[in-house]
Amino acid sequence: MDTRLKIAIIGATGMIGSPVTAALIDRGHDVTIVTRSPKTAALQFPTARIVHGDLRDAESLLRHIDGHDIVHLNLSIAPGTKPWEFVSERDGISTVIDCARIAGTPRLSYVSSLLQRIQGHKKFDWWVFRVKSAAIDAIKKSGINHVLFYPSTFMENIDHGPLIQKNRIIVPAIRQRGSYYIAGRDFGNQVSTAFTIDLPENAEFVVQGPDRLIPMVAARQFAAHYPHQTLIPTRVPMWPIRLAGIVNPRLHHFERMVTAIGQFEETFLAQGTWKTLGTPEITVAQYAKTHARILP
């Protein structure tokens, strides 16, 4: 496989899309960022090729993915989205598949979630995970070669999500199960490697980091090594979060994610990924010290 590929990225500016895009650009790939917000993308990637495209507009997508070796999808369902609204990982992926077929795109790449595997187990049911599962099925049935990634918990969730409130790291009081936290930068390097080696027509990778940590330990390690301000890990009961989630869709989304994490029995499944794509090296302590954002 040619080590320099033409890659169209949809979802380049998000929490994980950003480090993945940076890794692909650093590796020397010919990257096209397809986005509804070119100005925002230009602030993050001032030297990249950036074009305006919308998952709701098949014509714009087809025009911009035509001629690319890979279309990489780093999408998410925004907290507060209703099931009957436009959902990028359902309606958007359907449009991308249709356009990729017309364009003759050699490969689709999609970042899913390891956590979505809990759907249907232990009576856990959430429409967001149903959508993610359906997206995987749609890509597999598309007839287009694909590579699928199933990441565990990202370290970026600590400092980019709702967990930090003023000087506190909120740790919901759930049953303490461990997750293999991985940094977006390590994941970006793995994605880049996947695109530069010979893969089978279809490949799937479980993505996990070097250490299995329960949420409180992860919060304490982050706080102990975060250089910009003092942070205090603080356990918060789940009942007020559940209660507030009845009227606040964003908090409901957060509660569902936290509940899933509390129920998910994560085991280490990334042996093959590490052997093929490289071993993640960034720990939570290292992430807090050198990679975490400066909080407002």
Structural class call reads alpha/beta
The top level CATH class name = Alpha Beta
For the biggest β-sheet, the strand order reads 3-2-1-4-5-6-10
Alpha carbon gap, first and last residue: 44 Å
Largest sheet: 7 strands, parallel
Q: Roughly how many Å is the radius of gyration?
A: 19 Å
Strand proportion: 15-25%
- Element order: H for helix, E for strand: EHEHEHEHEHEHEEEHEEHEHHHH
State the fourth-level CATH superfamily: NAD(P)-binding Rossmann-like Domain
Q: Tell me the number of helical segments per DSSP (H or I, 4 or more residues long).
A: 12
Number of distinct beta strands: 12
The CATH topology annotation reads as: Rossmann fold
Write down the overall mean pLDDT.
Answer: 93
Instruction: List the domain count as a whole number.
Output: 1
Going by CATH, the architecture would be: 3-Layer(aba) Sandwich
So what's the overall shape?
A: globular
Helix content: 40-55%
